[in-house]
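Email to the structure team, subject: Aldehyde dehydrogenase family protein model.

Hi all, the expression group asked for a predicted structure before they design truncation constructs. Nothing fancy, just the tokens so they can compare against earlier work. One-line instruction: predict Aldehyde dehydrogenase family protein, return tokens.
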Amino acid sequence: MGAMIERVGGPAVRIPAGKLLINGQWCDGAEGRMIAVYDPATEEKIGDLVAASAADVDRAVQAAHRTFESTHWQKMRPLDRGRLLEKLALLIERDAEELARLETLDNGKPFGVSRNVDMKFAIDALRYYSGWSSKMAGEYIQLSPFFDDGGTYRAYTERRPVGVVGGITPWNFPLGQAVQKLAPAIAFGCTVVLKPSEDASLTTLRLGELILEAGIPEGAINIVTGYGYEAGQALVDHPLVRKIAFTGSTFTGQKILATSARHMKRVTLELGGKSPTIILADADLDRAIPGAANAIFPNSGQVCTAGSRLLIEASIFDEVTKGVAQIARGLKLGSGFDPLVQLGPLISSRQLNRVSELVSTGIKDGAEPLCGGGQVVGKGYFYQPTVLTGGRSDMQIAREEVFGPVVLAMPVQNAGDIKALANDTEYGLGASIWTRDINKAHLLAAQLDCGTVWINTHNVLDLAMPFGGTKMSGLGREFGTEVIHAYTEPRAVCMRL
Ligand code: NAD
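Reply from the structure team: attached below.
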């Protein structure tokens, strides 16, 4: 199903058909409206997606609900749900090269990254959550009732799946994010409707083919493509959806939280960031300078935890900024299918314009580009890796998430200054501290208001480590032992003996 695309200078890639996956069947949208898909590196049209309507979303949610309620699903052994995830992991492993090519075509990221980061993450995540399926343990509790009726009271808790989960994902790690939503949901006995980003849905559709091949029961995982304001909104507003697992912008997260209140839906929100990379004067600069570049430029800066504010102790400011700019100038931009390319395009012309405007305003406000600072002339949505200095914390460029290969460097004077500047943001996703003094690192880590602090590294995510943000960066956590709370409800059963 789908069409082959032949590309000059690139491999042939099969584009999945623009369909919806509902109740184990591929189908068209009820209204026949489609969304054109473009290769962000060439601006060529490469396919079409269904623009699902609220009626399509309703069909998908009803299917997920029927499956959730079915005896077959309710009685399935937890270990067998885990085995389904393991099967899906094997199929992704089998087709990893093909999936990675499709991800590169649709999203623009270098093929090596698609293959070695995105596909590997998806496979690991399925295996990690597969193991969780058999670990839904409750507690046995001895009670101390406030009255004495001569009885002995005990209670136990069991963890129950929340029900139908709506998984809404962004475009920066499309397949990985889809798996990140569906795998814990299935492991804990929920069913799912996935709504991938309209800017990058192709690998999620290809995943749909593997979901059918893996023998996952019909209706357990449904996929609806479409616009956020239409299909996404309909999913969030549907009374049978009991939980929304969302990754995306803070703006959309706020809307989802407000809409979810109507039906008191559970939500996990993984949102934006403005994470600081903090380099102290005693840092090992041979590691810290490449570390700072690596915190911002991979995936063309389209990473929620990107180290987009570079806070450097004043005595080493010039050396560090010059070093990061030198690395930035040496990065090769281009088609993700060129093995020498390190940075692909941004996802869309909209995103390219947004990054350009934010940088132009930053420069008008007084920031100075040490390198980059503009779009790349020609086809494709490319933006130059950019290092800005001369910034202040009150500038728009220091406060808003850019989501592009742009870092703003600011000098800091002392420990109090560092803490104040690092926390002077409405976001709270991540931060990294670079120093040789491990005591200093831990003392500073304890003062940073964010979900993850890295020491002498940045952007290390691990499925065993909880992930999420404070403040406007989100609500709840994914990964690690926290995940069980995100997809299950405790039920207490109390007895008199
Ligand atoms: P976005 O919020 O525009 O879209 C994300 C998803 O939400 C898409 O599928 C979109 O169709 C859908 N959507 C949009 N409006 C909706 C609505 N009203 N109701 C329901 N769904 C709706 O974000 P984006 O531009 O695709 O992604 C970039 C953002 O994602 C950045 O802000 C980035 O920081 C964030 N992000 C966060 C994490 C994290 O884990 N914290 C990871 C990756 C990306």
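The first helix runs from residue 54 to 69. The pocket of nicotinamide-adenine-dinucleotide is lined by residues 168-172, 195, 197-198, 228-229, 232-233, 236, 247-249, 252, 255-256, 270-273, 304, 401, 403, 429, 469, 474 (CB under 6 Å). Ping us if the truncation boundaries need rechecking.
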